[in-house]
Fold:
Amino acid sequence: MHSVDIAPARWAQLLARQNHPETQPAESADAAAALYGPLADAKGPFVLAQVGQSLDGRVATEAGDARDISGPDGLKHLHRCRALADAVIVGINTVKADNPRLSVRLVEGQDPIRVVVDCHAALDGSEGLFRDNGADVIVFQGSDAPLRSYANAEVIRLQPTSGGLDTGTMLERLNSRGLNRILVEGGAGTIRHFIAEGQVDRLHVAVAPLIIGAGPSGINLAAVATLAEAMRPPVTVYDLGSDTLFDCCLRPQPLSSR
Structure:
């Protein structure tokens, strides 16, 4: 297990890699660079999915309480990922249940563009991310849903498929706007679609030392009949402090893309 303890000066170096990845020498090949470098150094499209969960794989209680599952170091890790990303994607259930700001508050860095997947145009405009004067918001709607517009947000309408909105098309639209480093933060359904459709390069699973007993899981993929069919990605384990992080490589990046 690798220990990750990032001093402010080291974090500033990692932030600088966003704009100049080609200038980074091998001196920065430490645990912090191994963990955050793939996102920071990506020149082309790169998708990181992040899940914060309990020891028994829950992301909330049965009543929907999802606050404080991640410990303080797990939350800092999430905010570092936001700071390194161009855009952060969440689904409609995350917006309604958590009313997230999706900002960078616990570390230095710039807030990412906020993206909401709202297939059926269920948002009504009262949600906090439309009113908090934070980073810009993009909303993906299905073209068959009622047309809704929101203050301080761009609405992009896509033709729905049988499984919802196509994740590849969403990423293409974001990439065309110069948003290449993408963080898929939740919820479980949104992460499931991006993984199932082969769009995720890295999956971070941050495990906090608590047992909830029941509630939704954060990685809700289709069931397999035998363990031989299970995904077995290469994994590196990091000690964040309060949480343990599993860094799963779902799609190795060719050197030319970094």
Observations:
- The first helix runs from residue 8 to 16.
